[in-house]
Predict the structure.
Amino acid sequence: MAAPLTSALLYLDGVSVSFDGFRALNNLSLVLEPGEMRAIIGPNGAGKTTMMDVITGKTRPDTGDVYFQGTHDLRRLDEAAIAELGIGRKFQKPTVFDAHTVEDNLLLALKAPRGVYANLVHHLSGAQARRIDEILETVRLAERRREPAGALSHGQRQWLEIGMLLAQDPALLLVDEPVAGMTDAETAETAELLRRINRTHSVIVVEHDMHFVRELDVKVTVLHEGSVLAEGDLDAVSADERVVEVYLGR
Amino acid sequence: MIARALVSRFGPLVGIAVAILLALAVAVPALNLLVPAGSPLHVPTHVVVLLGKWLAYALLAVSLDLVWGYCGILSLGHGAFFALGGYAMGMYLMRQIGPRGVYGNPVLPDFMVFLNWTELPVTWWGFQSFPYALLMVVLAPGLLALALGWFAFRSRVTGVYLSIITQAMTYALLLAFFRNNMGFGGNNGLTDFKDILGHPIQGPGVRAALFAATALALAAGLLIARFVVTSKLGLVLVAIRDAEARARFLGYRAERYKLFVFTLSAAMAGCAGALYVPQVGIINPSEFSPANSIEAVIWVAVGGRGTLVGAALGAVLVNAAKSWFTGALPDYWLFALGALFIVATVVLPKGVMGLAARLRPRKAPLPPQAPVPAQQPAE
Ligand SMILES: Nc1ncnc2c1ncn2[C@@H]1O[C@H](COP(=O)(O)OP(=O)(O)OP(=O)(O)O)[C@@H](O)[C@H]1O
Ligand SMILES: [Mg+2]
């Protein structure tokens, strides 16, 4: 394996993505250190989700570098390979497997071999069953474990998808708008949960909810028109005039 | 006792279906061979053959349900896999004729002598051996599915485009097998079979044995399919069916799972074809006709997609209706079939199995069935 190009866990440099001439990402650079949690804010259409698409292999950048753990060039890998490397994702629109029960959704996400044969002969181990029980408690879905995920409310689907991230146990979690559709109490709990997750995992959170971002109490990156407008702690970026103008002052 | 063991391992539906098939495999041959022809309990040979044919179709339906119901691959070419299995069996049966053909050639089938061929084409080598023929019954459709799937799934061809490709595949094979120089008997196909494993193929004992073999094969097909869909791999298949992109982001390589289940299903369809051919006594290129594959889709839709047992039931019910119609109102069968399909999709989205479940609500969990088969793109 080649020597790491950078000590950063995630390294984006000069990344641009165009859709039919429209620049969704414009020379975006972002560095995430191991163990860091980063909040990303920015107006609608700023390119936050597109950035996650680039990191997870859904969208190929036109230009720029994307490295994970300094050695893995994410531009060359497909979604499954990137997931196997240890990057997990919660989608903006909660995406779970509706036909499967809550616990089967977690089982599918649970860290385990992803090959065809391994899954054909898979037997649920005691440790795996306990882990699923634990996660069900954490995301408060223990009572509904045998119901199809399609029957859950929007907020519960958010929680289930967060639970799937926990089950997947990736080194880096990309969490896109986790508290949309949640009550204030649930939002506070989610912030607390993410802080707990951050003790052992690196996290990138995209969120519009400023109370939530404040509770996370981490470095904030402001995206605007596909590039970084400002970076720093929340108070510093909130004081930035350009940020107020394009985003906070709406 | 067997039934109870089956139910506890494979669930009530498949367990009961397999128990019934095992009983049929014994009872139908017994009532045909042992009960005298005058008795009301006697099952005449033509009925044995008809039932055997339906069960072979049922196995084809189960194989199709495995890919369509559980992985969202709407194959409109499964008839091709069925026909390839049938041809492999037909080639064995042709070579069993030996010197008893019209031209008396000990090696070459009649149609080759007629075409002035002097040597057996390579494709026919080995088919004098029954085990080799059985291997080809599975390998020929399996390898075709593997090759087609490898290209299609890797390029992420899905939905209606994939359906069109499978339909084109069976149509291309239809045209190819029509050609005399392909060496598979041209438009006449393969027929006038004499023996199977040294026994006269028209004899009542062989008829009954073929029926029993088909019932057992269908039972085995149901058990294998049920084992696959109830494994964790089965969960992955349904996940791919409903949200392929999401499954990829969890690290599952959708193309490999599809390739596995498509190939398994094609091999199963091949077995169905191989059991069908000795019972009907002929295999010709019309078995590749796209309409056959579409009919199989209708069986599955009528019986209930994603239920396995429903697919088998649908095949039997639709073919029973077809037998009745072609006797009573031959001109109206296609209209009836079309109407059946529309009724099944509009009124009974889960087919006969869904109707049964609605009439008698039970706690037995049906296999996961998504309300909408369309893919929901992960954002
Ligand atoms: N696949 C695509 N094809 C065309 N345009 C796209 C595509 N994906 C994103 N865009 C456009 O790129 C821009 C950035 O979109 P993106 O979803 O990344 O924004 P966002 O910052 O996540 O916004 P929001 O806060 O609304 O979620 C938007 O204008 C969007 O319309
Ligand atoms: Mg977004």
